[in-house]
Amino acid sequence: MDVSEEIVRPPTFEDFFYAKIDRLSLSTHLRQNERQTAESYQTKLRDYLNSTRHSRRKRAALKLLKELWVYRHSKERTYPIFESFFKFEPMLFRDPSYRDHFFHQINVFVIGHYLINKLLHNQRIYNVFDFAGDINFTWLLASTFHDVGYPIQKVSAWMTDFFQDFIGARPLYQVSLDTMLTQNFYDYVRHLATFHYAREKGMELPGFGVGSQFTDWRLYDQLLVGLKNKNHGVLSALLLMHRILTQESFARSQEYLIADFPKQICTAAHAIGLHHLKATKEKVRFTVNPFGALLILCDEIQDEGRPSAKPMPFTRIVDIDVEFDGNRPTVKCLLEIPNRQVKEQKSKLRDRITMDQFFTLQLLDTRDQSVIATIN
Q: What single DSSP character describes residue 80?
């Protein structure tokens, strides 16, 4: 299939974004006195949403990411990893089961941005998110970076195809990360397990480089196994920490490592690292990992507008509504489910996350008006 000419945004996709998200003030990512930057952001977002061809939409996506990561949040040394993803993803479409992860990350960001800023009207929910400081920035990190490690996960399969094409043999080619990773990556894994323990116990967030005897050893082991197996969620989390710590000059500040790094970067990495960690049988809890619970939700329901190597059934978001009745909101996601198999897959979301009674999440199938899952 020639993905360069594929229409990537059906009308209902546009309808959802414009009806719900464009009405919300997306300038929450910007300081109030940065009107020019806010207008630039809105313009780039609309350019991205309005682009219907693959190549044009990718260029619009990069401009939007640069606006957010560089011009707004001054992460000019971390941002180039998106350009690398942009360059290497076309090779992944050789895999007939592959579907886009580049557009998907931005779509997840925008859907989650809408949900967060609706839910924050509830004071109890606001208090859950408030530990992260700049809530919208932390969501930007978690959502737009959550699949960045995917090309690394697929590299061995790609190399096998490469040798098949050139020499007619399919070696069991495996890229060993152990020979390439520095000790830093294992330190990041340990810190994430320590961070998780602190969040579960309601303790003060540990600053990076500050020793702690409290670690969730089971999660530590699961993350290490995920790293060895090239789990893209674990890789993406560690890459975010690594890029910030080794590339951005402000990360050399001890004050930043103790205060802002754990609230923003580690919180986002915590969400990313657990979003595809199937080894753990425990649900991601909203009160412990609110960005992680939201990431898993948005990641699961966002299918539409993703080019694939071959035609695949996809779930279409028809509407998302947040109802406030008393002190416990209800989030209703109206989905157009293509078949029973996909419906069963979506229903398994109830086994992965819990909202800890802070709000109710309902997934509804518009075809037969049935409830796919209710999560409390």
A: H
Q: Which long-range contacts (CB under 8 A, 24 or more apart) does 50-54 make?
A: 50/14, 51/8, 51/9, 52/7, 52/8, 52/9, 53/4, 53/5, 53/6, 53/7, 53/8, 54/3, 54/4, 54/5, 54/6, 54/8, 54/307
* 8 A C-beta contact, residue 206 and residue 264: no
> What is the rounded CA–CA span in Å between residue 239 and residue 227?
11
Three state DSSP letters for 333-371 = EEEECCCHHHHHHHHHHHHCEECCCCCEEEEEECCCCEE
Supply 174's token pair: 């495996």
Query: Which neighbouring-strand residues pair with 59?
Result: none
> For 121-125, 135-139, 331-335, 338-342, which range has the lowest pLDDT when averaged over its residues?
338-342
135 in Cβ contact with 116 (< 8 Å):
yes
Rg for the chain (alpha carbons), in Å? Answer: 20
Both structure tokens of 90: 């076309």
pLDDT digits (tens, 9 = 90+) for 270-296: 999 999 997 667 899 999 999 999 999
DSSP 131-188: GGSSHHHHHHHHHHTTTTTHHHHHHHHHHHHHHHHHHS--------GGGT--HHHHHH
Cα separation, 127 vs 124, whole angstroms = 5
* Sign (positive or negative) of CA dihedral 365, 368, 372, 376: positive
User: pLDDT (tens digit, 9 = 90+) per residue, 62-119?
Assistant: 999 999 999 989 999 999 999 999 999 988 898 888 999 999 999 999 899 999 989 9
Q: Which of 209, 235, 211 is nearest to 223 (CA)?
A: 235
DSSP three-state, residue 98: coil
Residue in 310, 311, 313, 302 with CA at minimum distance from that of residue 93: 310
Neighbours of 310 (CB within 10 A): 11
- Full-model pTM: 0.91
For position 32, what pLDDT does the model report?
45
User: In the predicted model, what is the mean pLDDT of residues 311-334?
Assistant: 90
